[in-house]
Design a protein that fits this description.
3 domains, alpha+beta, D-Maltodextrin-Binding Protein, domain 2, 4-stranded mixed sheet, Dipeptide-binding Protein, domain 1
Length: about 350
Amino acid sequence: MAEGGLSRRRLMGMAAGTGLAAWAAPYHLAGAQTPAGETPKYGGVLTQDTFADPPHFDLHQSETITALLPLAPCYSRLIQPDPFDVDKLIPDLAERWDISKDGKVYTFHLRRGVKFHHGKPLTAEDVKASWDRIISPPKGVFSVRKLIFEAIGGIEAPDAQTVRFVLKRPNWSLLTNMGHGWNVIFPKDILDAKGDMKRDVVGTGPFKFKQYVRGVSLEVERNPDYHVKGRPYLDGVKTFFIPDANTAVNAYIAGQLLLHEVSLEVPGGEIVALGEISIEEIEKLMEELRVARDYLRSEGERVRSINARYAHLARTASDSVKVITESMGKWRVTEMESAK
């Protein structure tokens, strides 16, 4: 049984079968029905895993999922991908934005009433300070994504609720890149005082930092002052650090993990036989559970790659678990009972 009495069936209803964590869609209407037809319920702790500890807590200076996965619930961005349609961008800290006719000025209008976890209200100066260190990092700060935003010439904060990005030239991929999970907003006062966020986790997100035990787990808890009314649904998220893949799979099957990411790739050669499962059955399974998007690539009876996030350990309607594995060029599905 998972912590807080959160069953896998209940988690699937909360996460709406999207393959994303339950905190990922804060701006859809509260109380709206999930695609599975269930109304989300409050409570429970989501347990998930990654393969190692984060090297530090500063997401601007990080390029590993071991930092992003456990820390993302604590932060907000200006804009974010819609978790129900990743081809669309939706508001996060910016309630709306305008683009000049020449495509060189992007103006973001911030939400009011947003507070950082240490109590300080969010202002345009926090956004400017965060983005300044991404595009023009000070000495001692390594910005992993600096070159991606090379087209940004400067950032202005004309008032407390407005941020203006002035570009050197039009860049039509700017918004998409800005929506990536690493581009979080940090509080300016902590940046000014400490220079980085390597040891601090202070954001405006739906969860706030609770505890980090090196080599074991990082836990975040519900932010009661979150600016989106009625969110989040979960009481917390606990990420375990499990370097051994088999151990992680066993923990998932046993119900100790509610969410586990599996990446299976077929290198080089072609797989003609699929053992106990056909390509069509895999496609049907992924479609029904809404856990993979454009990851299955096939040609006739040949499988080139399967790379589905949060997905190959997939629940059936009876709440059993289907584990898709590959051995000696054969794909197989094992179905077993899961923890309720």
